[in-house]
């Protein structure tokens, strides 16, 4: 008996083109058409233009994917909403940098997660970033590049992501995705994760990355919501990244639209090959580091050159509505992003000059160096996990 | 071979209780826990507290459901976003009351829908509310209660909904749901439709209604988003509806939380039994009309008394973010809602007095009467459809 089974989950635009830079395939922006294409058979005339992806396939990827949620004093209600949007099939990893005193927000997070999970039974792993046992585990394998001067793990999002990647690897996950804890729209979180899975299904290389762009990023302008197309920092970051790509391909391009995309995911094979820039430079630096390693500018490891790296950029249907962090945060993000580009050995002088100009006009002073965490493959993973399990005081597993 | 198939789509709270009023079962508020519960088997300890609903079951309902989108000069980008959120399995019915001159926005809507549908191939039916052929078709079956004095179909949302119900019936749909065209969050639209389907799967009666409540309805307060729990009108409407229920049950209650819920759906069997109040009174009046017909206060048709009516109220995970319509709109909505309660023959005098007080304090004057459209079962349906197909100038089918 043939079981004629059509579970099309989403429809989206097929790649209209891409930029090649050595072994890096920067795919042009793709759009989602429909969030749920149902179970009707799909006799489309537009087969070449759109891809329909079955929810069965998406769910198979989800089972191999961990979603890392870095949290730092965000409201518990927001975290709960985000969790409700993450597909149940995904492993959730919460890395908390929240305060422990005078109010212990980490304990509040654990309690909320337990309560939420009483009914939902997600697989959730959580840890506190400043867990002394975690720092000891890093020390034991010589990963000093993630530690601050006082010997604890550095604060910051990149460090939380790094911890998330290692925990995902510990759980044997093949994909790792990131979702911010301050998202007001659970449906958007759900869409991001579907986008990650859809991207991995389209990828030809085992080294793949999916970056989400938002259709709109609403800001409050006076007493109204203004649906801005791009975040303020993104415009500058994307422009500089595109100039960088141009300087090697020799052709003008606008291909990069997701330089600051916090919502992104990687295959574990790619994630463990990358270095990570500290703080807010982490997202643009991922793109730069991929180009540094596989862009044909420097010699690359054999396998990544053969397979190439797929970088997908997919636009979400949902607007990105998150906590406003204020102007200071925006300025720091801009500086970190520019710093990631400026300090790359592949950044040409004319782009460096232009970045310095931009900094001046914004009253910012370029950072002296880019702090980086070395790539996960460099550490003795089994020793790290053993030390972590022995010494951690906050590693908590909910089921 | 047993095909062991687990496609759990959503998890949500089971009913914790309900109010009975004659044959009407007003179910207490239920919450969604997770938008996508994946395909993992679900060995929950909490079976009695939560329901997991398979996406297969949801999709079966979707195939029998039409989603009516009333639109009136809303931005095309918003309509496109809403469409992208409606599951592909659902029939879409767009009823447009948009302007035809000096700019013909209806033609723009048709063009946008055609373009969108080139890739997506939804089943979309659309019609303009002021189509002269539509008015003639109503006249031909004596449905004068939907016409204005000049003989055209009255403007307003209730009238658009009514047209949508008839078109859904024409297409043989068993369920009809409503979604506003001004929603900024496609993921919320998708969740609403999943909530409708989940409610119908829980219903025991063929006469059933599902009303969505929003977890938050963000408003811009000064330069920030404030995530208000209830809309301004909803508080007053719900309170008065609850007083009405109390006056018959003799027990205080807060059971009604969705008096003004524009996001709602009905089984066709219920939809064709109801009268519809004109304009913004339509949503609260549905509840009142159900109580009038089946609440045990007036004699009811035999079948509805035997089966009862299920009214579900389910809270969405996504916030409700829509176009701000301004204070005038809010005032009109409040007045219409109060008018729907005030003019009901089952409204006791003390509630009438209190409504008059509320109106005074808001500077509103109670409307003289409640304009109603008689229930769809009263018209000769086949004659109406025949006349519509012959005379309509705007009925358009996209596939």
Describe the structure.
- The N terminus of chain A is likely disordered.
- In chain A, strands 1, 2, 3, 4, 5, 6, 7, 8, 9, 10, 13, 15 and 17 form a 13-stranded mixed β-sheet that branches.
- In chain A, strand 6, helix 2 and strand 7 form a beta-alpha-beta unit.
- Chain A has 399 residues and is an alpha/beta fold.
- The first copy, chain A, contains 13 helices and 17 strands.
- In chain A, helix 7 runs parallel beside helix 11, helix 9 runs parallel beside helix 11 and helix 11 runs antiparallel to helix 12.
- The interface between A and B is large, with 61 and 61 residues.
Helical run tally of chain A: 13
Helix content bin of chain A: 25-40%
Element-by-element helix/strand order of chain A: EEEEEHEHEHEHHEHEEEHEHEHHEHHEHE
- Name the chain pair whose interface involves the most residues: A-B, 61 and 61 residues
Largest sheet of chain A: 13 strands, mixed
> In one word, what is the shape of chain A?
globular
Please, what is the oligomeric state?
Answer: homodimer
Low-confidence stretches of chain A: 1-8
Alpha-beta classification of chain A:
alpha/beta
> For the terminal residues of chain A, how far apart are their CA atoms?
38 Å
Question: Which features characterize this protein?
Answer:
homodimer, 399 residues, alpha/beta, 13 helices, 21% strand, disordered N terminus
List the helices and strands and how they pair.
The structure is a homodimer of 399-residue chains.
Chain A: E1 8-13, E2 18-21, E3 24-27, E4 30-34, E5 50-54, H1 55-63, E6 65-71, H2 76-85, E7 91-96, H3 105-120, E8 124-128, H4 132-140, H5 157-170, E9 175-178, H6 186-202, E10 207-214, E11 217-221, E12 224-228, H7 232-249, E13 264-267, H8 268-271, E14 276-277, H9 282-294, H10 302-307, E15 309-316, H11 327-342, H12 349-361, E16 372-373, H13 381-391, E17 396-398
Parallel strand pairs in A: 3-15, 4-15, 6-7, 6-9, 7-8, 10-15
Antiparallel strand pairs in A: 1-4, 1-5, 2-3, 8-17, 9-13, 10-13, 11-12, 14-16
């Amino acid at each position: 008996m043939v079981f004629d089974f059509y579970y099309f989950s989403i429809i989206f635009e097929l790649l209209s083109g891409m930029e090649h830079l050595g072994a890096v395939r920067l795919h042009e922006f793709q759009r989602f058409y429909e969030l749920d294409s149902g179970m009707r058979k799909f006799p489309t005339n537009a087969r070449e233009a759109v891809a329909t992806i079955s929810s069965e396939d998406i769910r198979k990827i989800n089972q191999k994917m961990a979603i890392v949620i870095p949290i730092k004093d965000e409201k518990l209600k927001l975290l709960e909403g985000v969790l409700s949007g993450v597909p149940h099939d995904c492993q959730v990893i919460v890395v908390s940098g929240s305060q422990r005193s005078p109010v212990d927000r980490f304990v509040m997070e654990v309690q909320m997660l337990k309560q939420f999970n009483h009914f939902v039974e997600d697989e959730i792993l959580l840890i506190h970033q400043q867990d002394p046992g975690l720092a000891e585990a890093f020390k034991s394998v010589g990963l000093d590049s993630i530690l601050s001067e006082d010997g604890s793990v550095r604060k910051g999002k990149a460090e939380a992501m790094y911890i998330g990647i290692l925990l995902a690897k510990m759980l044997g996950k093949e994909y790792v995705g990131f979702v911010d804890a301050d998202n007001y729209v659970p449906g958007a979180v759900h869409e991001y994760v579907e986008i990650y899975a859809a991207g991995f299904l389209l990828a030809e290389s085992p080294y793949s990355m999916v970056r989400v762009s938002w259709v709109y990023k609403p800001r409050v302008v006076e007493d109204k919501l203004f649906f801005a197309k791009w975040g303020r920092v993104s415009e500058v970051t994307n422009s500089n990244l595109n100039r960088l790509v141009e300087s090697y391909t020799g052709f003008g391009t606008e291909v990069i639209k997701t330089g600051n995309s916090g919502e992104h995911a990687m295959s574990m094979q790619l994630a463990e090959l990358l270095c990570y820039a500290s703080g807010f430079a982490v997202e643009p630096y991922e793109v730069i580091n991929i180009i540094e390693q596989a862009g044909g500018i420097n010699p690359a490891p054999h396998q990544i050159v053969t397979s190439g790296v797929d970088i997908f950029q997919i636009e979400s249907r949902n607007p990105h509505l998150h906590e406003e962090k204020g102007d200071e945060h925006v300025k720091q993000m801009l500086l970190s992003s520019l710093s990631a580009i400026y300090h790359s050995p592949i950044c040409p002088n004319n782009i460096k000059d232009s970045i310095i100009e931009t900094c001046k006009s914004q009253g910012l002073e370029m950072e002296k160096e880019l702090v980086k965490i070395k790539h996960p493959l460099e550490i003795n993973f089994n020793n790290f996990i053993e030390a972590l399990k022995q010494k951690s005081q906050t590693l908590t597993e909910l089921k």
